[in-house]
Amino acid sequence: MPDGQVLRKRAEEALKVRGAYGKDYELDSYEAASSDRDRVESLEDIAADQRKTMTDVGVIPDSVGRSGSLIYVDNTVVHNTTADQGLELIPTHEAMEKYDWLEDYAWRAVQVDKDKYTARAYLENANGYFIRVKAGKKVEFPVQTCMMIDSNKRTQHTHNIIIVEEGASLDIITGCATSGHASESLHLGMSEIYVHENGSLNFSMIHNWGKETGVRPRTGVELGKNAKFVNNYVIMKPAGSVQSYPTCYLNGEGASAKFNSIALSHPGSEIDLGSQVVMNAPKTASEILSRSITLGGEMIARGRLVGNAQNIRAHLECRSLIMSETGRTLAIPELEAMYPDVEMTHEAAVGKIAREQVEYLMARGLDEDAAVGMIVRGFLEGSIRGLPESLREEIDEAVNMANLGN
Amino acid sequence: MLRIEDLHVEVDGKEVLAGVNLEVPAGQTCVLFGPNGSGKSTLLHTLMGFGQYKVTKGKVYFMGRDITDVPIDERARMGMGILLQRPPNIVGLQLRDLVKAAGDGHLDIDETAEALLMKRFLERDVNVGFSGGEIKRSELLQLSMQEPCFLLLDEPESGVDMESIDLVGKKIHDLLYDKKGCGWEKGNRSKSALVITHTGQILNYIDADCAYVIRGGQIMCKGRPRDILRDIQEKGYGECIKCRMVKF
Ligand SMILES: Nc1ncnc2c1ncn2[C@@H]1O[C@H](COP(=O)(O)OP(=O)(O)O)[C@@H](O)[C@H]1O
Ligand SMILES: [Mg+2]
C-alpha cells in the first residue's frame, strides 16, 4: 500500500496533468471553499434558500423514508445522521482516524495521479462521506447525501468512500447542486466504491449545477464475487461543463454492473458523460445505457466495455435525440475483448424525434407539445427499469419545463 | 358526416390520390375496397391529417366544416379516430400511458384492456414486438378509450388469426353501437365509420350501409357492400370495376 509520502509525491507531479476529456480548468485561479462551516444539527434548521437547493435535487428535509443523511456544503460535512444499526455514515476524515484498515481502500479505485483534479483533491486533503454497510445488513431505506456548493468561484473537493460488505445491500441517492450565487465554481468529487462478495449497491445521482459550474467527478468502483452495482446518473438542468467517466472493475466471478445515464444538454452546456466497465472475472455481466438529448448544447456519450475474462456478457446502448438546430451530439461506444468466449454488443443511434410517432399520439387527441413530451419522457426513462421515484420526478419536471414540444 | 370533394394527394412528390369523391352520411358505415397500392391507406391517413400527405387540390368536410387544413389533434378532438394498419413502435412509452392519455378518464383502463385480452400488454412499450393481431387489439383499445364519433379503420381484420377475429369484429361492432351517442343516431348505431377491408370478413360484424371501390387513386364505383364484395370475389377487381363504372 502506498504510504502518504509516495501518494503526495505522485499527486504533486500530476498537478499539471490535464483531464483526458472536457474543457481544461486552471485550478490555480480557484480558492478552496470553506471547510469550516457551521454544523447543522437538524436538516430542518438549514437556511431556507439552501434547503430549497437541496430539495430540488431530491433531498428530503425531514429524512422520512431515509436511513441516513449527510450534507456536505462547500468543503464541510455540516450534518450527518443515521437511523440504522449496521450502517455507518460519517465524514471521511473521521473514518480515516477511526479505522486503520481504511488505508487499504483510500485512493485505490481512484488514482491520485490520474489528472490535476484527483491530484488537487488529494493535496487539499478532501473530506467527504464515508458509508459502510456491515456484512449481511440489508438497509431498507436509501441513504441520502447532498453535495452543495454555496460560495462562488471556489472549488469543492470531496473524497467519498463507500464500502458494502459481504452480503449487504444499500441504496444511495445523492443530490449535487450549486446555490444560485455560486455558479462559477468547480466541483471535484472523488468517489471510491467497494462492493464485496454478494453485496449490492444502487447509487443514484441527481445533478443541478449552475450555468457556469465546472464538474469533474472521478469515480472508481470495485466489485467482488457476485456483487451487484447499479449507477443512475441524471442531469437535466443547465451546467457549465460536466465531464464524468467512472470506471468499474468487475473483479469477482459473477459480478454485474449497470450504468444508466440520462442527460439534457442545454445551450451553453458541455455534458460529457461516459462509463467504463472492465470485466476481469469470468461470468460477469455489464450494461451501459445512455439516453441523452441536446437542446443546443454539446452532448457527448462515451461507453467502453472491456472483456478481460471468459464467458462474459456485456451490452452498451447510446441513444441521443437532437432537438435543436444548434448543438452537437457525439456517441462513442467501444468494445474491447481479449477472449473469444464473450458476448459483447453495442448500439448507438443519433437522430431527431420521429414525426410519425408524434402524429400517432396527436391522432389520439394529444396536442403536439404533449405528444412530444410523452415520447421524450419515454425515451429518457422508459427503458431504464428500477429508477427511483425522485429521479423520475426530476425528469418529468425537466421535460415539462423545457417545453420540448416547441 | 364526411364529404370528400375532388381530393388530390401527393406523397413524397408523387400523386397517389387523383380526384377522390366520397361521402359517409352521419350514422352510416361505409367500406372501402381496392387492390393493393390503390390508395386506401393514403386516403385514411389524409383524412386524419398526417403530415406526409399533401393535399394539392380538393376539400375534406367533416361535420359540415372544411377540415382540409386542420391539425391532426384538432380532428381527433372533433371526434375522428383511426385504427392504423401499421402503427409506429414507441420505445420507452408504456401502452398504459398512451391509453390513459387517449381517454378522458371515465373508462377503467384495466377493464377495457381485459375485454380485448390486452391487459398484460399495458406495461409493454407501445407496439414493440406486438404480433399482427396484438397490434389491432392495441389500436382498438386506444380507440375504445378515445370514443370517437367517426372511425377510420384500416384493414382491422388483416393479420388477425381465426380465434381473435371474432373478438376484433365484435369489439368494432360495440364501438359503432356504443351507447354514448354523437347526436345523429340511426336505429341503434351511434357512430359513423369508413372501413378499409380486403377480405370483407368485417362485413359480418358491422352491417355496413355503403361501399366504394378505389383504384389508381380514384373511386371507381359505389354500391351495396354485399353486392360489391360478391362482384370482387367472383370477377376480381378488373371486372367489377368495369361493370360498375357506368353506373357511377
Ligand atoms: N410514404 C410513401 N412514400 C412513397 N409512396 C407511398 C408512400 N405511401 C404510399 N405510397 C404509394 O402510394 C400508393 C398507395 O399506397 P397505399 O395508400 O398504402 O395503398 P393501399 O392501402 O391501397 O394498399 C402505393 O403505390 C404506394 O407505394
Ligand atoms: Mg393499406
Strand and helix layout:
The complex is a heterodimer of chains A (406) and B (248).
Chain A: H1 4-14, E1 31-32, H2 48-55, E2 68-73, E3 76-82, E4 87-91, H3 92-98, H4 116-123, E5 129-133, E6 143-149, E7 154-164, E8 169-178, E9 186-195, E10 200-208, E11 214-215, E12 218-223, E13 228-235, E14 241-244, E15 247-250, E16 256-265, E17 270-279, E18 285-294, E19 298-307, E20 312-322, E21 328-337, E22 342-351, H5 355-362, H6 368-382, H7 389-401
Parallel strand pairs in A: 1-7, 2-6, 5-7, 6-8, 7-9, 8-10, 9-11, 9-12, 10-13, 11-14, 12-15, 13-16, 14-17, 15-17, 16-18, 17-19, 18-20, 19-21, 20-22
Antiparallel strand pairs in A: 2-3, 4-5
Helix pairs in contact in A: 1-4, 5-6, 6-7
Chain B: E1 2-11, E2 14-24, E3 29-33, H1 40-48, E4 53-62, E5 65-66, H2 72-78, E6 80-83, E7 90-94, H3 95-102, H4 109-115, E8 125-126, H5 132-146, E9 150-154, H6 162-176, E10 192-196, H7 203-206, E11 210-215, E12 218-223, H8 225-245
Parallel strand pairs in B: 3-10, 3-11, 6-9, 9-10
Antiparallel strand pairs in B: 1-2, 1-4, 4-5, 7-8, 11-12
Helix pairs in contact in B: 3-5, 5-6
Bound molecules: adenosine-5'-diphosphate (ADP) and magnesium ion (MG).
